[in-house]
Amino acid sequence: MATEESNSPQNIPTWVIAAVCFVIVLISLIAKRGLRRYGKRAGLCGEERKSRSLSSPRTMTNGGDLVDNNCTATGGFEDMYGEDSATLDQPVTPWTVSVACGYSLMRDPHHNKGLAFTEKERDAHYLRGLLPPVVLSQELQVKKLMHNLRQYKVPLQRYMAMMDLQERNERLFYKLLVDNVEELLPVVYTPTVGEACQKYGSIFRRPQGLYISLKEKGKILEVLKNWPERSVQVIVVTDGERILGLGDLGCQGMGIPVGKLSLYTALGGVRPSACLPITIDVGTNNEKLLNDEFYIGLRQRRATGQEYAELLHEFMSAVKQNYGEKVLIQFEDFANHNAFELLAKYSSTHLVFNDDIQGTASVVLAGLLAALRLLGGTLADHRFLFLGAGEAGTGIAELIALEISKQTGNSIEENRKKVWLVDSKGLIVDSRTESLQHFKKPWAHEHKPVKELVDAIKAIKPTVLIGTSGVGKQFTKEVVESMASLNEKPLIMALSNPTSQAECTAEEAYTWSKGRAIFASGSPFDPFEYDGKVFVPGQANNAYIFPGFGLGLIISGAIRLHDDMLLAASEELAAQVTEEHYEKGLIYPPFSDIRKISANIAAKVAVKAYELGLASHLPQPEDLVKYAESCMYSPVYRTYR
Questions:
Q1: Which residue ranges does the record assign to the Malic enzyme NAD-binding domain (predicted)?
Q2: CATH for 139-349 (2.115.10.20, 3.40.50.10380, 1.20.58.2190, 3.30.70.2750)
Q3: Residues 6+ apart with CB under 8 A from 521
Q4: What is d(CA 498, CA 495) in angstroms, rounded to the nearest whole number?
Q5: CB contact at 8 A, 372 and 403
Q6: Directed axis angle between helix 181-188 and helix 155-168, to 10°?
């Protein structure tokens, strides 16, 4: 029988006790030495070091190895992490120390202020000597950067300079973008982002979002947990199959989610830390990329069918599990067949939004509602002809029919008859129904077949011509002249992006219509003078809608999206167009007012969420416009204690 004495400490071998004590002392010495060395380097110690602890990036060599700030990667001093004493073939542990001060503070894009650190901040945060003596205001920094950006003649160089700025000084990036939105919007998004995606493998420097490939199947939840931010409110995700009008760019489509989310912050005021760009990499069918030695994605042809569906379903489930019911998932640049299927499949279980289908529809409808002041009549009085019957075309068409139903009380089926679509095979008519994709079938009206666009114009006699084909130069001189012969003020919207894929230019529309056309495009065009009058082309840019729309969903705590929210956003955007804008031929307000516009759109979307019982942030604020403005992220520098 065992006795109490047999379990006593005296019976534990002496060598075991000595070994344990030795390990404890060794760990203690190493820890103290490391903290002492780091504290000495950072200028912090004891409680002061604890009170100033913030997340900071590690100091890296060009090869990505962690090194001590007081030594080079090749040696000279022993570093606190042990890398310098290790040979190249020995593994090392990637230790990190989180103290936002000194050199680390300047390398943290979330907290870095560059030369704007005040004298007091430089002393308090151990920056003395690490910066030149001058102190520059944020406004002067913006002025200097704009001067530098304007020196670049190549748009892609400006894009790369902006991305570099975002990676080193987040607030300055957004301040620059907010203060110069009309000039810089084409740089950080369309059309320049298209070229950036095409060359993404060559210009890639550091990841700006999450890459989820087929290799991560079964582990997507773990991958999401690798993202450092926990309070994610908006996810923009693409699989890269249909990037703008450029086609399948595979993994290099990441430029789209990154660009969209920078606009969510700059234009809609959503916090940068609440935004997560994601690319789903299932391969690419782009042979040029598969043979490109710099391509950064999976080198295989696209997965389809069950394999694709299972990966996307795991992704959607993992997002909901990790971030909750209210995270907004925005699908971006998926191919038509997947875009419609994903939206239909998950709209009842997740808060999902497709900007190509719903965002484009909302911004175009806003332009149409605003243009009625110039065209006359109601929306129901007009006939609409689309070139392009994909995500954008059918999405816009459906929202037009919904708005007419709201105004007239007529059935949506009846209102669809006012909208006609032309695809690559000609006018969509009832005799083609059996061969049509499901999303085109509602638009197959009774009419004889018509092959050419100009013949469809002559047959349908539309008052509005909308291009969503993704193919440039389709609105020829004959097409525009036909529209002008039928209408005193033809409304022509060439919406395909980027600029090279626009159905026609502003100059062509105004010249061929003899200055009578009302013109809007997807990408920006410069003002054009015709017959002594200066015309300012409108831009039906989704950036008018999705940032404010997303903000409205966030501030209301919406758990699902409803079409009435899209209609509310369109109506509010149209209401922002003033007489002064109409005099210039504009059917959209200037982007210089976009933060105010976004706040008003957010308020209208939130109101609708509360009305529909889809809001979870209760009680409803009394003044939703002011509440939206108060929730918007400000890129102005903060003062550090």
A1: 357-610
A2: 3.40.50.10380
A3: 493, 494, 495, 502, 506, 537, 538, 539, 540
A4: 9
A5: no
A6: 100
Tell me the per-residue pLDDT of 541-579, one tens digit each, with 9 for 90 and over. 999 999 999 999 999 999 999 999 999 999 999 999 999
**Considering only the top CATH level, what class is 358-541+578-589?**
alpha beta
The HSE-up count of residue 581 (CA atoms within 13 Å, CB side) is 20
Q: What is the pLDDT of residue 89?
A: 72
How far apart, in whole angstroms, are the C-alpha atoms of residue 159 and residue 157? 5
Instruction: Give the Cβ contact number of residue 39 at 10 Å.
Output: 16
Query: Is residue 356 marked as binding?
Result: yes
333 labelled ligand-binding: yes
**Domain residue ranges in the chain:** 37-124, 139-349, 358-541+578-589
3-state DSSP assignment of residue 599: helix
Quick one: how far is CA 244 from the chain centroid? 13
What pTM did the predictor assign?
A: 0.83
Catalytic residues: 189, 260
Q: Where are the beta strands (DSSP E) in 110-150?
A: none
- Tell me: is residue 497 an annotated ligand-binding position: yes
Q: Do residues 175 and 224 lie in contact, with contact meaning Cβ atoms separated by under 8 Å?
A: no
In three state form, how does the secondary structure of 478-515 look?
A: HHHHHHHHHCCCCEEEECCCCHHHCCCCHHHHHHHCCC
CA–CA distances in Å: residue 549 to residues 599, 607, 616, 626, 636: 9, 12, 16, 16, 23
Q: What is the pLDDT of residues 17-75, one digit of tens each?
A: 777 777 776 666 565 555 444 443 443 433 343 333 333 333 333 333 333 333 333 33
**Of 403, 510, 417, 521, the residue nearest 468 (C-alpha):** 521
* 3-state SS, residue 233: coil
Q: Is position 242 annotated in a ligand binding site?
A: yes
Task: Answer whether the bond into residue 91 is a cis peptide, omega within 30°.
Answer: no
Listing DSSP states for 341-383 in one string gives HHHHHHTTTSEEEEIIIIIHHHHHHHHHHHHHHHH-S-GGG--
358-541+578-589 has the same fold as 139-349: yes
